Amino acid sequence: MIAAGVLLVALGYLLPHAQHTHPNNQLAREEQAYKKWVKGFGAGLGNRPAVVILEPDALAQMDSCLNNAQRQARLQMLSYAVRTLQTSNDQVYLDAGHANWVPAGQMADRLRAAGIAQAYGFALNVSNFDPTAREIGYATALDQSLGMAKRFVIDTSRNGKGGARGRAHLAADPVSRPLPGAGRGALASQLFTDPNTQAADWARANPGDPRAREIEQHIAGQPTAQWFGAWNSDITAAVSSYTMPASSQHKVPVLVAYDIPHLDCGGPSSASGAKSWCNPPGHKLGSVPQVLDDRGDMGLWIKAPGESDGDCGAGTGTQAGQFSPALATQLISGRS
Fold this sequence. Notes:
The chain is α/β, with parallel strands linked by helices. The protein has an eight-stranded mixed beta sheet, covered by helices on one side. Strand 5, helix 10 and strand 6 form a beta-alpha-beta unit. The protein starts with 17 loop residues before the first helix and ends with a helix.
């Protein structure tokens, strides 16, 4: 389950009785609204190179709370988003959950139905803590089940507990597949680092705090994905304003598209379930954004380290999406 650091107002939730009286009309309105949002997202990208992580949890949550019509609509919406956003300039990665969620064969079926053949690849471990090596194994199983070799990215922002040290079997001298529009070289030097993240803003505002330098060095100085969703009143303007500075620096930004209807309807409801994903203690920063193997598969920071999952776990007293210097320093040191 993702606690992405935002308050998601899913499309259609303001019409609580519409699905009971006119379910097909409501579903059609949701699809139309989502397609409009995706078009706006694509317009904001323009012809600027970008990496787009498409709808974390959308495929993994398919069985949680959707009826058959909603499941089919979700697959169609994802397929539309892939066709719209995947261009010669951009890399679109469909989210595929993580190794402990949906069996590889079942997830492969969902990926096919959602347009993985047209997408650049799939994303794993977004906002989760699974070790990198385990996720690489799951990616291999997905490729086998798909019957095609798709590239993948793994969120390594908070999986340092055994994650960065669990890749001994990877190529000793990995070679990057160049990102679209970017020159060859180290991946970290190709990705855009936003100077105005919450971590960077906090460090600048608290120069006298002994934690500020560590946070600036270990978190604010790393390229981290920016999330976009229903909280952006003008999606085209929001995406454009984020990608334009990256393009001017000849860097490649990483964006997360997170606005598909009913995305948060299947989240864990029990306190015991929340313990596994909501600010769990004992984790560290994972490996910095980098190439994982000789095929160009990547480890990225998709969930921003230090931004709380909510008032829970090690983040008790914080709000979802709020930057917490205490959480950040715990991730840097690995100590609760």
